């Protein structure tokens, strides 16, 4: 009978001197069995660690003073022995395996016939059985990349940079404990949807690859809740999917040195976002929803922002409004529930990206669009200069649901500019 866990050896309190020795928890293989040869010795408990793979042995029969099992469901228990007077504190064990092990230990203590006990040979442990699980691996050259060996399933941080990878290794997608994945400085062109199955992933670095798109399926995966840091800088991205704004856990996003011509129209939904960098792209303006962001640091340097001109509107008004437009506006303005079980999916998508007029009303395909100037300090505490002239202003889209709303805006604009 063998149990993998962590073990801490503590000497019991000695009343005569008031001392208590304390060990240090170490990964161990705990075995219940007979010594090699089977002679002379009854059943023993053997604890093997990386420091002592041959193991320390403790007699079991009539030698277990007490078992502490209050936290057995959490994989914890303590075995108190009479001779030597020590407590073996077990932790980080599989709860089911621990229960089975303690049951066999209790029977061995009571002197149950060894023939009916699930005993194991008391032999030294292998390195792989007692070494601490590997949680971090950094590979920075092609020659060091493992081609035949699997990645340790215990990995929480994996970096494979400068390895000339053309795709994400399928073996990486099996590392369910990954919290940080760094695939920077490779030749990756596309991301598999199964990357979203890494339920613990908090940081994803894809800096300096050949990505031309970021999958909407990834944005609708478990990454919605877990992903906090995303680096897509130095790729070939021209746009991000509408679903990108479903990654509600994002705190830090880097989009520098791409070919982005727009940011997602619902970017304001990223309420946790604090650091945004999209320098040296091809952004002509910012989406209307950008006003809703609350950032600590913003960098939009080197984008070819257009000069705002509120007096030259893009008029897309349809007068009279179509029945579809009227129904869509009413659905959003009155917050009427809708979904793909009620409406065609393309209508749901259109409703999801509806524009908002200055008056607060919604508009879908009938609107007036202009660009106005916004000082980026309205959305960020620290702003990197937008250009070499020391400016921190950028053009942002503005929508109106009717000629009346636009004319009211014009009156205010002309009055303020005297």
Automatic annotation (TrEMBL):
GO terms for cellular component: cytoplasm. Keywords: Leucine-rich repeat, Nucleus, Repeat. Pfam families: LRR_1, LRR_8, PH_LRR1. The keyword Cell wall biogenesis/degradation does not apply. Residues 1-119 form the PIF1/LRR1 pleckstrin homology domain. The keyword Repeat applies. PANTHER family: LEUCINE-RICH REPEAT PROTEIN 1, PTHR48051. This is Leucine-rich repeat protein 1.
């Amino acid at each position: 009978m063998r149990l993998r866990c962590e073990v801490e050896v503590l000497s019991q309190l000695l009343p005569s001197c008031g001392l208590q020795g304390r060990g240090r928890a170490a990964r161990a293989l705990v075995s219940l069995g007979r010594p090699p040869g089977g002679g002379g010795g009854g059943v023993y408990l053997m604890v093997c660690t990386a420091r002592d793979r041959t193991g320390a042995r403790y007699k079991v029969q009539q030698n277990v003073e007490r078992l502490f099992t209050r936290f057995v469901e959490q994989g914890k228990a303590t075995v108190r022995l009479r001779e030597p007077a020590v407590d073996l504190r077990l932790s980080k064990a599989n709860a089911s395996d621990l229960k089975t092990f303690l049951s066999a230990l209790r029977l061995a203590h009571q002197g149950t016939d060894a023939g009916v006990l699930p005993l194991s040979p008391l032999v030294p442990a292998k390195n792989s059985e007692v070494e601490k699980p590997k949680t971090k691996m950094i590979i920075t050259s092609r020659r060091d990349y493992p081609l035949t060996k699997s990645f340790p399933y215990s990995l929480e941080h994996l970096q494979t940079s400068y390895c000339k990878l053309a795709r994400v290794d399928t073996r990486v997608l099996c590392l369910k404990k990954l919290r940080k994945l760094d695939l920077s400085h490779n030749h990756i062109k596309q991301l598999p949807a199964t990357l979203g199955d890494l339920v613990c992933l908090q940081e994803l670095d894809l800096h300096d690859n050949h990505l031309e798109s970021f999958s909407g399926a990834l944005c609708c995966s478990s990454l919605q809740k877990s992903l906090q840091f995303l680096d897509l800088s130095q790729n070939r991205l021209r746009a991000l999917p509408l679903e990108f704004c479903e990654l509600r856990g994002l705190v830090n996003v880097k989009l520098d040195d791409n070919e982005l011509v727009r940011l997602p129209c619902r970017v304001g939904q990223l309420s946790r976002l604090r650091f945004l960098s999209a320098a040296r792209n091809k952004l002509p303006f910012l989406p209307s929803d950008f006003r809703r962001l609350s950032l600590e640091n913003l960098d939009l340097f080197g984008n070819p922002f257009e000069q705002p001109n509120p007096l030259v509107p893009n008029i897309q008004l349809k007068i009279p409004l179509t029945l579809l437009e009227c129904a869509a506006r009413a659905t959003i303005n009155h917050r009427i529930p809708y979904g793909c079980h009620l409406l065609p999916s393309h209508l749901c998508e259109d409703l999801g990206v509806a524009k908002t007029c200055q008056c607060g009303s919604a508009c879908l395909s009938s609107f007036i669009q202009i660009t106005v100037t916004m000082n980026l300090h309205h959305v960020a505490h620290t702003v990197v200069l937008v250009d070499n002239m020391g400016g921190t202003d950028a053009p942002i889209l503005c929508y109106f649901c009717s000629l009346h709303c636009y004319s009211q805006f014009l009156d205010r604009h002309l009055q303020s500019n005297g």
